[in-house]
């Protein structure tokens, strides 16, 4: 029997006040691949991502994690397993280290300092641990946000246009560090982007969305040329 | 009851009071006149406000005069009515928050109720309508103000910090821990006026109860002590109300799947 994919959706739908945000999306994300959710602005990419870690509730369909319907999984466990990097880093007041360790701190768990520094090193933030999060550049803040999500050791990472608010140089740096870290940790990821070049550089397969619905799924070459 | 009310009205002190009102009215009329001379255009508004204030306060005096004759058990009903009014007014500060009416009613009832019952038991409030209704109303009115401030701040906080809260939830944080700092902000903001009142008590302002007691010939030291008791009651009831509102609202704003509800502009 084939192994269940780490993450799959089945007829996933979200309708709010009569407006369809996500329409009947069925996708399958394979282990250790970067699955790209591609489409123009307003096509439902971020809305789809928010359903994958259940930050919003589907009004139809569901999501499976390793073959298990995610509605049967405790939301906190689910969100640890499916990490989310939002478009804007949204750091809390405090140091970089406090931001990266925010997950375990909220859960009242011990913080693995060695791992924290390892992650900071990997994301080009060596020596940043004690810096005030308020004083970071946009690119640095986004890298802290990525470290914060990875520090939770998720099975799948949701990346919501992590470089979209940055200038070209900072975006490229975030992208290359992200590629390195994903390869190093053999991460499975879902990447939302409207940038075809970035999708090609980071992704393996994906889905193209229009008006909330998936219009094509498969290899990136076919999707992005379509 | 009606005869008692008639006796209150016919009391010679009432006529003395009316004369004093006349003197105060002359001063108020002077302000209206000055306003007209200087072209402020406030005459109508000032006159109406003055007349309205007079009618309202005399009506309250008459109501309290009538209430003084009812059995003490009625106090609970009267105070409950006041809690209802306080709920209605303060809930408007949190319009759009889920279950805001229920939460406000529960928080004010428990916050103010606990203080009134405890202090009545301790002998600080006489178990009479004459004492329970006015002191109770002071406590309830302040719980209302503090509840309104807490709701207002909480609503702003939940809207402005939505991204931060969702990041906390997305990291697998328990809602109580994720919301803690935002709920604390609401409680702290709501208690600032009462804390400032406590700080300035006596040297910046002499509050009404103490002033009234001194004017009524009461021992000034006892008047001061009793005023402090009143302030402490206001602080305790307000603090309890604000904390309860935050606690209950912290649960209401989350769905069963630990998602932050949308904070709308209207309704419960």
TrEMBL record, chain A:
Coiled coil: none annotated. Keywords: ATP-binding, Hydrolase, Nucleotide-binding, Transport. Residues 7-226 form the ABC transporter domain. It comes from the Bacteria. Its EC number is 3.6.3.27. It is an enzyme of class 3 (hydrolase). The keyword Cell cycle does not apply. The keyword Protein biosynthesis does not apply. GO terms for molecular function: ATP binding; ATP hydrolysis activity. This is Phosphate-transporting ATPase. It comes from Salinibacter ruber (strain M8). The lineage of its organism: Bacteria, Pseudomonadati, Rhodothermota, Rhodothermia, Rhodothermales.
């Amino acid at each position: 029997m084939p192994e269940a994919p780490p993450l799959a959706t089945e007829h996933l739908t979200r309708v709010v006040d009569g407006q369809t945000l996500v329409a009947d999306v069925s996708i399958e994300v394979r282990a250790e691949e970067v699955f790209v959710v591609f489409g123009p602005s307003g096509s439902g990419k971020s809305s789809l991502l928010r359903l994958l870690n259940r930050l919003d509730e589907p009004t139809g369909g569901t999501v499976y994690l390793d073959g298990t319907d995610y509605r049967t999984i405790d939301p906190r466990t689910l969100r640890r397993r499916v990490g989310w990097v939002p478009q804007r880093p949204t750091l809390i007041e405090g140091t970089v280290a406090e931001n990266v360790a925010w997950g375990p701190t909220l859960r009242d768990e011990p913080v693995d300092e060695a791992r924290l520094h390892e992650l900071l090193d990997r994301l080009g933030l060596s020596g940043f641990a004690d810096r005030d999060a308020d004083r970071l550049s946009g690119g640095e803040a986004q890298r802290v946000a990525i470290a914060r999500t990875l520090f939770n050791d998720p099975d799948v990472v949701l990346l919501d246009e992590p470089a979209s608010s940055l200038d070209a140089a900072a975006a490229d740096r975030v992208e290359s560090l992200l590629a390195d870290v994903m390869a190093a940790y053999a991460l499975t990821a879902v990447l939302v982007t409207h940038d075809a070049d970035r999708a090609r550089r980071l992704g393996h397969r994906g889905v193209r969305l229009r008006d909330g619905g998936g219009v094509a799924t498969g290899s990136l070459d076919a999707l992005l040329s379509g | 009851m009606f005869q008692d009310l008639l006796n209150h009205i016919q009391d010679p002190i009432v006529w003395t009071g009316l004369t004093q009102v006349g003197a105060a009215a002359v001063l108020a009329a002077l302000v209206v006149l000055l306003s007209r001379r200087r072209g402020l255009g406030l005459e109508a508004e000032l006159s109406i406000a003055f007349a309205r204030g007079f009618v309202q306060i005399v009506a309250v005096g008459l109501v309290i005069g009538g209430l003084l004759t009812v059995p003490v058990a009625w106090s609970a009903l009267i105070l409950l009515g006041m809690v209802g009014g306080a709920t209605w007014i303060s809930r408007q500060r949190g319009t759009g928050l889920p279950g805001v009416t229920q939460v406000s009613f529960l928080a004010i009832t428990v916050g103010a109720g606990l203080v009134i019952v405890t202090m009545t038991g301790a002998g600080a409030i006489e178990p009479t309508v004459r004492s329970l209704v006015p002191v109770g109303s002071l406590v309830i009115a302040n719980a209302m103000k503090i509840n309104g401030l807490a709701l207002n701040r909480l609503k702003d906080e939940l809207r402005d910090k939505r991204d931060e809260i969702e990041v906390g939830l997305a990291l697998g944080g328990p809602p109580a821990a994720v919301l803690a700092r935002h709920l604390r902000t609401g409680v702290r903001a709501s208690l600032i006026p009462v804390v400032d009142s406590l700080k300035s008590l006596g040297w910046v302002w002499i509050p009404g109860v103490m002033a009234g007691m001194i004017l009524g010939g009461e021992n000034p030291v006892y008047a001061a002590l009793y005023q402090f008791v009143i302030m402490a009651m206001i602080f305790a009831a307000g603090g309890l109300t604000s904390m309860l509102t935050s606690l209950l609202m912290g649960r209401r704003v989350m769905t069963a799947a630990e998602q932050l509800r949308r904070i709308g502009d209207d309704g419960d």
